[in-house]
Design brief:
Layout lengths: L1 H17 L46 H4 L4 E2 L2 E2 L5 E2 L3 E2 L17 E5 L10 E7 L5 E6 L2 E7 L5 E7 L4 E9 L10 E7 L4 E8 L5 E2 L1 E5 L3 E7 L5 E7 L3 E7 L5 E7 L6 E11 L2 E2 L6 E6 L3 E2 L20 H9 L20 H9 L4
Parallel strand pairs: 6-12, 14-21
Antiparallel strand pairs: 1-4, 2-3, 5-12, 6-9, 7-8, 7-10, 10-11, 13-15, 14-22, 15-18, 16-17, 16-19, 19-20, 19-21
Length: 360
């Protein structure tokens, strides 16, 4: 699919470039010989480091934090516009203040200072695991502070800069492909002036839902959700006896259990889940209540948030969305859902972001 997208971008830019020259229609072919021209363009988001790019997805060439700046530890990451992100590259400060670590599911505190930081630059960097290519929302004292998108492996990182010194409750949550939110993961953090603190190894709890709020005894209730890919999920169904069923999430992080209610008594029950991945265990998900009775009452899924770059609202990023973005290329006042980086125009940066979120 990246080859198709590359071809479309090349054809589009070639036609756009030729249309800017008024004398193009007066060119006559020279039949006396043959001229062969090779044109190569770089496409951000195809996972291959090419000319003009600092990085592309996981391809950094031989670049390290040390070569990218005056850092002595950490790791580089790559932005959707194929430029280095050095927020995980740190210069460890000689002063080590103390602060509480995060709660269950991760949250290791690591105070550090960027060499470019001034005394007025203060903030916190959060990193961890969630759901692949999901929106991660950061709250500060219950107010939305920032958002980011996790990568295909479910890893995420976000930074809250220019936060005044003080004590805060930071929280993160995510939303899965069905529009279901995870539980909040909250960290009390003491922010020190001039220090960029790091909260790492965050493991956001899985999402969870049931297909029925009431299930007829003997029928199945479907319990489903999403978390990190290829991980072990423990699904707990609480009744007079607790049932614990283990499943494995698929490559997208999704899991599903059709639970037989024959062994459940008539009345109220609930379910919750947690994830184990590479030796780390998340906290429990939200608790979802359901009842066992004489009829089935289905629960509709919440309305999903559109993917970034989904111009036609079909919850996919494909050539239709590329065509819409191509129409607005270099035109004034593009719609906000087409101007993906919010700079007031559609450029190759917007096409790079679209390619990053590509679903096909």
């Amino acid at each position: 699919m990246n080859r198709i997208l590359t071809l479309f971008i090349f054809i589009f830019l070639l036609v756009d470039g030729l249309s800017t020259y008024p004398f193009v229609n007066n060119i006559h072919a020279d039949t006396s010989g043959t001229v062969t021209t090779t044109v190569k363009i770089s496409v951000c988001g195809n996972g291959v480091l090419e000319g003009g790019e600092q990085c592309d997805d996981d391809d950094f060439g031989n670049a390290t934090c040390s070569s990218a700046g005056n850092f002595n530890s950490g790791s580089l990451s790559c932005s959707p516009s194929c430029e280095f992100i050095t927020t995980s590259c740190i210069y460890t400060a000689p002063v080590t203040p103390t602060a509480p670590s995060g709660g269950g599911g991760g949250g290791n505190y690591s105070p550090s200072v960027s060499p470019s930081s001034s005394a007025s630059q203060t903030g916190v960097i959060f990193s961890g695991k969630a759901i692949p290519k999901s929106i991660i929302t950061l709250l500060k004292d219950a107010q939305v502070l920032a958002t980011t998108v996790s990568d295909g492996k479910a890893d995420f990182e976000m930074t809250a800069y220019n936060v005044s010194a003080g004590n805060y409750n930071f929280s993160v949550y995510t939303e899965d492909n069905n529009g279901i939110r995870s539980s909040l993961h909250t960290f009390p953090v003491s922010v020190t002036s001039g220090v960029i603190s790091k909260i790492g190894n965050i493991f956001i709890a899985p999402t969870i839902a049931t297909d029925k709020s009431e299930v007829r005894k003997g029928d199945t209730v479907t319990i489903f959700g999403q978390s990190t890919p290829l991980s072990e999920v423990s699904i707990h169904v609480n009744s007079d006896n607790e049932f614990i069923i283990k499943k494995t999430t698929d490559i997208s992080g999704a899991y599903l259990l059709n639970f037989d209610t024959s062994d459940l008594e008539i009345g109220q029950h609930n379910t919750k889940s947690k994830i184990a991945h590479d030796g780390e265990i998340s906290s429990f998900s939200k608790v979802i209540n359901f009842s066992v009775g004489t009829k089935n009452v289905f629960v509709p899924l919440p309305e999903k948030v559109l993917l970034k770059g989904d111009a036609n609202g079909d919850r996919k990023i494909n050539l239709v969305d590329f065509s819409v973005a191509a129409y607005w290329y270099n035109r004034p006042s593009p719609p906000k859902n087409i101007d993906l980086n919010g700079d007031g125009r559609v450029t190759l940066i917007d096409f790079s972001i679209l390619a990053y979120n590509w679903t096909g």
